[in-house]
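Researcher: Structure prediction, please.
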Amino acid sequence: MPSRRRFFVHVLGRSAALAASTGWPVLVRAAPAGSAVAQVEALFARADAIDHAGPTLNAIVERNPLALAIARAMDHERGQGRLRGPLQGVPVLLKDNIDTGDDMLTTAGSLALAERPAAADAALVERLRAAGAVILGKTNLSEWANFRGARSVSGWSARGGQTRNPHVLDRSPSGSSSGSAAAVAAGLAPLAVGTETDGSLVTPASMCGIVAIKPTLGTVSRRGLVPIAHSQDTAGPMAGNVADAALLLQVMAGADAADPATASPAAVLARRGLADLQWHPGALAGVRLGVAREHFGVHPAADALAEDALRTLRDAGAVLLDPVRVIADPAALGAAEFERLLHEFKADLNAYLARRGPTSRVRDLAALIRFNHANAEREMPWFGQETFEAAQSRGGLDSPTYRQAQATCHRLGWTQGLGAALRRHRLDAIVAPTTGPAYPIDPVGGDHWAGGCSQPAAVAGAPHVTVPMGTAFALPVGLSFYGAPGHDARLLQLAWAYERRAPAHAEPAFRPTVTLPR
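Model: Predicted structure follows.
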């Protein structure tokens, strides 16, 4: 069974050759070609050995029964000289809160939606299929994207059970894009799509030792995503390296008349930058990076790795402004963000369920709460639905409480927060450790979350990239780059230039538990 890295190179190498022959951006390494059918068969065999047996990661919740047929069609088209796009025949996994209008379910991990498939593809899935991607299956997630109960367990859902971290099996994969991160880390697919409202892409990527991109809000259409909050929700790519993640983001990004956020100036700017993206080994020379010390202190080992990363950035010619304050009032921002999420969750989920129509047995949040009570033994064995109930008690999006929360988020998150820091110090980006090493899985006590750096970019709708920067006790830790909305391509250039100088990405060893370093 080849290693994860050999899978990345072998599968994505075909896209590099394809890009070179068609004029599409060349963002991945060249490697020997192989048929899409052979790749899908090999990945399914790897999933049998690693995901469903052996370490039993439980990352993939459902395989696409049409994957091999799609792969054969992509191979046939290639043989006829017909090329759809830069992902021709490349397998991609989707988080189980992204609609597919096929035989697979879209459930957000909940049994309430595990009855009939969605009626249509999400906008990003339409774009993946148009680019020739083979949708390999759906990945497990933290149920309802970690927005159901006060003691949520990352990587657990009623539909999929508990996903494990492939580096150390009794450690959390984090969430909510848990299965997507674990699957890519373990070589079950070269590419996966996750979603984020606040941290759900970057923290599992950090703890599983891969790359993730949370794009500017609206860069990728939200049509067909099971929502939390329209002010912050976005899908994003997860991959083994920056270039592969960027290629996936280029394909996913696009305007959509059904999602007004895709027409925002920042989203348009982001897509324009992605279309012109090029890699420059010297991209870090002369850039001004703010060091957000407020995100340090999650774990001393993560801080030590971050100091090494800062030295690497300085050696590459970056100018570090250290420290830079990004969050003016953490408590007030946190309270306003949560209030905004509660209001938008109620409104946005009700609208989504109404669009699902007969493909969902619940038609609104109130019915979902009743379903969970009626099925508590299966749905709520470890934690409850306090967050659901809090959201249900909120008013509409015209309420003064919601409007005040929105205004506070903009003021503290951007005007006096991230935006002020970037302007005051004339910064290209902010850098910080993404979070600490993975904590133990604890279904009784819930997540042992100690903190991270996802909030500023999440609240501001700004881009955020995490790249592995090393390991502590065999557990990966990521380095984050985040900055102004629309500047996704710039962040990717910086992250790519750092990745070239960073320690080699750690291969998962599927250890049963942590051990003392030797």
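Model: The chain is about 40% helix and 10% strand.
Researcher: Thanks, that helps.
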